[in-house]
Amino acid sequence: MDREQLAHWQAADALFDQWLDLDEDAREAWLAAVDAPDPVRRRLGQLVAAHRAAEAPRPPATDALAGRRLGDWSLEEEIGRGGMAIVYRARRDQGIARQHAALKILTLGTLGSDGAGRFRREAGILARLNHPHITALVDSGVADDGTCWLAMPLVDGQRIDHWCQSQAPDARAIVQLCLQVCDAVAYAHRNLVIHRDLKPSNVLVEAGGHVRLLDFGIAQFADGGGERTQTVWRALTPGYAAPEQLRGDPPGTAMDVYGLGALLHRLLTGRTPQAAAAGGETTRPSLLVRAASDAYHRHYVPLKSDLDRVLLKALAEEPEQRYATADALADDLRRWLDGRPVLAQPPGAGYRLRKFILRNKGAVAAGVLLAASLAGGVGATLWQAGQARREAEIARIQERRATAARDFMVQLFEANDPNASIDGPLTARDLLDQGAHRMSGAFGDTPALRAEMLVLLGDLYRRIQELDAAEPLLAEGIALAGETGDPVLVIHARLGKGLLDAAADRHLEALAEFDAVERALEGLGQVPGDRHGQLVMHRSRALTDVGKVPEAVAYAEAALARARSEPALPPEAMFFYLRALAAALSVQGHEQREEALLEEALALQSLDKLAPTERLPVHASLAGAALGRGDLEAALERSSEALALARRVYLPDHPARASLLDLHGIILTHLARFDEAVEAITESIAIREASRSQGSSLAAAYNNLALALDNAERDAEAEPHMIRAMELAGEVFGRDDPRYAIAVANLGNLYRQSGRHDEAEALLDQGLRMRREMLGPDHPYVAIGLVQMARLRLRQGRAAEALVLAGQASAIYHDAEHKDPRRLASTDEVRAVALAALGRVDEAETLFEQAIADARAAGVDNGVEWPRVMAARAELYARHRPAHAKAAVEDALRAHLEIYGESHPGTLRMHELAATLR
């Protein structure tokens, strides 16, 4: 849609709103007399016709489906219809229980467009969402004749605009209704769903004022591709659509922020935003209803006092000028309800003072009389002088606290002076133990300083993995900080407690602390900011640790968008926001986006203010991203740089070195440098065991060690480590977590390779079933499980089943956002071997040659998978293509020697195969 067409639709929509406001008997004459260009008149006519069609009585024939069964449901009577679907009241009987639902049926006219695709997507979206203000999915299916249907709870409610018209609520009640919609939309965004069609007809109000958000028919997964907005133009409603939505831009959460603003605008002014702007003079909502004769005049005063600002920010032309998230909009509306300053305008001193007076009218009445007698200049001078005195006093307090803290730490380190210590140098734990002992009676007359030192010591204990010692110090520090009333100190203390909870694998408790810190930072106006950026990093990591990866990505993405909207944000703060989103994306497998964000983070200027310990994880993450996209040499270079820096920065037994050793070992395994990999990961485990590291890290390290040994075909050594990894994963993550499922399947794969097929089948089946249930049928981790099971089926002589399983895996990999050429080559190897076993040798040969050509073109002929692919091809030629067998075996032997080395069992097998051909 070009700009001219967009302008025509917007003008038509504004006129359509005017037409709706007229009495029924005046509409026809107005329509005939309206002065508008022909393109606008045509579009206005379409809107009027669509409205009349929707309002027209339904013909009796529409109940023709009554009595028909769809799945377990019997259709009763039609209760609604739209452009895409008809909705029936339906019933199903289950024993003595009877259930009613609204059954949404795709119309035949929609099948020709992508209606069926949108219908399936709506089912997928509703299945993902479970929220009290979102209509849930009860059931869905496709009938034998291709009829698509969804069953949803039968909601007995009114459209929100009709409800407001009949109930005449005040502005506060309307805002409270809209907050329920905001909460539903924010929840959808956290689950990576964008509604894209927020309007009154999609929001119902039930008895008691409970709101339900309906119709995700043109909604979009934020983490997938899908339709651009242009392709769903006919389905959306122009009066409530964001400008970029009408332009056909890709979907984003800012569209829904605009939609929420447009909905609230309509309920408070009776007009859509486009209609309000049609006059061209102003778009301030309060001015639309200031006339005493206006039907919405009762909202004039509330709009004028701050709601104007909130609406204008939500409805900003450019997405980046709106609220960063639906939660941010909701927070500002709650501030308005509480009589606090809204954040939609820069809160100057006079503005804050007005809000204080409104909240405390009685307490300041006498002060107002006195203030009225002061001249403006004198008042300003007194204000500035008072501010200066307060700032000077704060500075003196901070200086005294800093001096006392410094003296305390110097006294601790004096104990490590050879002249002061009888038993020799002390460890970090010894120093901290001395500090904790001295704190028992220190700073009793200065609660704020005592709280600060307790939190500092607790945090230092956490950093050396002495979590039990950290716990009581942080608990007392939090209690004291709360008593001081110093919000900055409370933030510092609760952040320390959250980090301790995360280190102890108490991730839900950590999230509660991080949420409290975020609210406090918001209250101080420090969002976005340096401290908030670090918090976003910790909170998004905690979300991924409890399996809420989509929520972590959505949260970090919204935080980064908000940070980008603040031009004065220092680079070191932006650094943390970029890192947070990159880390969340890495868990989802979006390596390309992750890498771009990390490179942007490293390219920021003024990063010299950040310690090497802050920059180090970015280098490590870049190594992981390079590994994810299959560039093993780049991954090794990055991880080697990171490990060298870590050895300069950290002591040999520091847990941060363990993490980098683990990553380095994984990359070495992929490069088939197994002995080096085992050495690196073994060192990592030793550090973690010695420091009593968190179980999640140990589980991953044992898994990685077992995989390195497994790839080296040292199965007997690998087995105890793999069992340990599975046990730890079950203890730490729970047996309903994808990471436990992966550990189970990895043990099954090890048993397959050692010929223990019955044990392997049970574990591989369990791991695959769990991954499907937890991650969905199309996740790349499911594809890995399918290939593992296919290899077992080949060992069992069940080639036909193996071919089906490997084919399913190949389809998943090809549909993935990032196509991993290494996994594709490995999957094609299994498919080709299965084809050959079924006697389809020509197809197998063609598939092998294509897979090898693709892998070489992608530059992935240097990793651990490559010799296996070449070996399988050589064995095929040795059996079925003797004329070409010698060359194929020589190619395979060369690959084994270059990648595995002379002593690997696979290389020895290739030597034996070559000998049979001489």
TrEMBL record:
Key words of the record: ATP-binding, Kinase, Nucleotide-binding, Serine/threonine-protein kinase, TPR repeat, Transferase
SMART domains, from UniProt? S_TKc (SM00220), TPR (SM00028)
Example of a GO MF term: ATP binding
The protein here is known as Serine/threonine protein kinase
| Pfam families linked to this entry | Pkinase (PF00069), TPR_10 (PF13374), TPR_12 (PF13424)
PROSITE patterns in the cross-refs: PROTEIN_KINASE_ATP (PS00107), PROTEIN_KINASE_DOM (PS50011), PROTEIN_KINASE_ST (PS00108), TPR (PS50005)
**Occurrences of domain Protein kinase (ranges):** 73-337
Question: In residue terms, where are the TPR repeats?
Answer: 741-774
Q: Which InterPro entries match?
A: Kinase-like_dom_sf, Prot_kinase_dom, Protein_kinase_ATP_BS, Ser/Thr_kinase_AS, TPR-like_helical_dom_sf, TPR_rpt
User: Which SUPFAM superfamilies does the record cross-reference, listed alphabetically?
Assistant: Protein kinase-like (PK-like), TPR-like
- Where does this protein hold ATP? 104
